[in-house]
From TrEMBL:
Family annotation (PANTHER family): 30S RIBOSOMAL PROTEIN S12 FAMILY MEMBER
One GO cellular component term: small ribosomal subunit
Sorted UniProt keywords: Ribonucleoprotein, Ribosomal protein, RNA-binding, rRNA-binding
Protein name: 30S ribosomal protein S12
Pfam families assigned to the protein according to its UniProt record, in alphabetical order: Ribosom_S12_S23
Gene Ontology molecular function, alphabetical: rRNA binding; structural constituent of ribosome
One BP term from GO: translation
UniProt xrefs under NCBIfam families: rpsL_bact
Coiled-coil regions, chain positions: none
Family stated for the protein in its record: Belongs to the universal ribosomal protein uS12 family.
Length: 182
């Protein structure tokens, strides 16, 4: 097979298998460079055969939750977890400590290890300046990660249950549970 025939074959290949995917475009460019002998190998990378699909059908990718602790509760009577989502969860502080953030930031961020009512144990960020939390404090948790703290996916809600609001706060008071100063 001389070069013009190969090009015709590659054009036919492009019409048959082109879907607009960037990855396939790269593979097709490689096929152009290497010639027609590479086409059959590319075809197997690009899509499965009917027999492969019959043997093992396509699996849908599982959606990963950003806040898995809020996706289920615990049924005490049946002693097993029950799947239902909730915007907040109550928990008890096991340990209150500080962590240093990732580069390029530098600080001592206040966090707490919390055991939730569903039995899970998570690390939660304590927002605002100053707090009154200690071991055995009961807190309310919401979703929302601390961007520069790896593994911290939850925030403690200020001004609820045992957590006091931030004192002296004049703006964004509702986010920090601060009452209006008179």
């Amino acid at each position: 097979m001389n070069w013009p025939d190969e090009l015709t074959f590659l054009n036919l290949f492009a019409k048959l298998y082109w879907t607009g995917s960037a990855q396939r475009l790269i593979i097709f460019e490689r096929a152009l460079v290497l010639g027609a002998n590479f086409i059959h190998f590319v075809h197997k990378i690009v899509m499965p055969t009917i027999h492969q699909l019959i043997k093992k059908e396509r699996r849908k990718a599982k959606k990963r939750h950003k806040t898995p602790a809020l996706t289920f509760g615990f049924n005490v009577l049946k002693n097993r977890p029950k799947e239902y989502s909730s915007p907040f969860k109550r928990g008890v502080c096991l340990k209150v400590f500080t962590v240093t953030p990732k580069k390029p930031n530098s600080a001592l961020r206040k966090v707490a290890r919390v055991r939730l009512t569903n039995g899970m144990e998570v690390t939660a960020y304590i927002p605002g300046e100053g707090h009154n939390l200690q071991e055995h404090s009961v807190v309310l948790l919401r979703g929302g990660r601390a961007k520069d703290l790896p593994g911290v996916r939850y925030h403690i809600v200020r001004g609820v249950i045992d957590t006091s609001g931030v004192e002296g706060r004049k703006q964004k008071r509702s986010k920090y549970g601060a009452k209006k100063e008179k």
